[in-house]
Design goal:
Blueprint (H helix, E strand, L loop, with lengths): L1 E10 L2 E11 L4 E5 L6 H8 L7 E6 L2 E2 L5 H6 L2 E3 L12 H6 L7 H9 L4 H17 L15 H13 L5 E5 L7 H14 L5 E5 L3 H7 L2 E6 L2 E6 L1 H5 L2 H8 L4 H11 L6 E2 L3 E2 L5
Parallel strand pairs: 3-8, 3-9, 6-7, 7-8
Antiparallel strand pairs: 1-2, 1-4, 4-5, 9-10, 11-12
InterPro entries: AAA+_ATPase, ABC_AA/LPS_Transport, ABC_transporter-like_ATP-bd, ABC_transporter-like_CS, BCA_ABC_TP_C, P-loop_NTPase
Protein name: ABC transporter ATP-binding protein
GO molecular function: ATP binding
């Protein structure tokens, strides 16, 4: 389990996350949604070690993450993707995945590099990377430079790099951002296929159609605080959630109608699907 225990993040006098507690359980997909500036990405960045927690604790089972450096958080079993792609553009797709399997000790890395008993381990890591690439339909691009791939393919390479270490917790930060409808549907199927009894998944996303069709549990953030938690049906019917997004009840029905007719009630970003904005 991934647990946020009374977590606060303060930037000067501004509280981006304010005393938030919830648990992400394995075997299900937990979405975190909210208007822009609600604190969603701040939660992910704290869990992954990019931001330090101001107060509170973040745990994988009994292991506290908030004081660990990033590489130890990764070794504890947490992987993530990024809202903006962060691949090594000049390296091959295969190499981008292999860096996620660097041994936890420098001694093992030196042995692998110079062939002192580590060659078999290096081959096993490469086999694991190729297995993941095949699963995501990326095997034909294994030796291509990552930066030469189409945007949607690069998004899948990021997902592949995140899952290749067999994490216990997977954080997906807006994985559908910039994808067209077909690419989003493909991504959806890949995420659903990742659901396993021993993997806790967190999905942060603005595409509400994707969220409602893929999530088991939804956490709603607003102004740094936890506003609501429940099933997609619970969240869809929650008046407070509707008011947080558009300032009035009945907002979800209006949003869906506007999306179908592409009217001007809400703004749609090309390729990203439906985006809710706080008024």
């Amino acid at each position: 389990m991934l647990r946020f225990d009374h977590v606060t993040k303060q930037f000067g006098g501004f509280k981006a996350v304010d005393d938030v507690s919830f648990t992400v359980r394995p075997g299900i997909i937990t979405a975190v949604i909210g208007p822009n500036g609600a604190g969603k990405s701040t939660l992910v960045n704290m869990a992954a070690g990019s931001y330090r927690v101001s107060t509170g604790r973040i745990l994988i089972d009994d292991v506290e993450l908030q004081a660990l450096p990033k590489h130890k958080i990764a070794h504890a079993g947490l992987s993530r993707t990024y809202q903006n792609i962060r691949l090594f553009d000049g390296m091959s797709v295969m190499k981008n995945l292999e860096v996620a399997l660097v041994p936890p000790s420098i001694g093992s890395l030196v042995s692998d590099t110079f062939g002192f008993g580590g060659r078999r381990e290096a081959e096993e890591r490469r086999e694991r990377c190729f297995e993941v690439l095949k699963t995501l339909g990326l095997a034909p691009f294994a030796e291509r430079q990552a930066g030469s791939l189409a945007y949607g393919q690069q998004k899948l390479v990021e997902l592949a790099r995140a899952i290749v270490p067999k994490p216990r917790v997977l954080l997906l930060d807006e994985p559908a951002a910039g994808l067209n409808h077909g690419e989003t549907e493909q991504l959806k199927q890949h995420i659903l296929a990742l659901r396993q009894p021993d993997l806790a998944m967190v999905l942060i996303e603005h595409d509400m159609k994707l969220i409602m069709s893929i999530s088991d549990t939804i956490i709603v953030m607003n102004r740094g605080q936890l506003l609501a938690e429940g099933s997609p049906a619970d969240i869809r019917a929650n008046i407070e959630v509707q008011e947080a997004y558009l300032g009035q009840p009945g907002a979800i029905r209006d949003i869906e109608a506007a999306a179908r007719g592409r009217r001007n009630r809400v703004r749609l970003r090309e390729g990203e699907g439906l985006t809710w904005h706080q008024p």
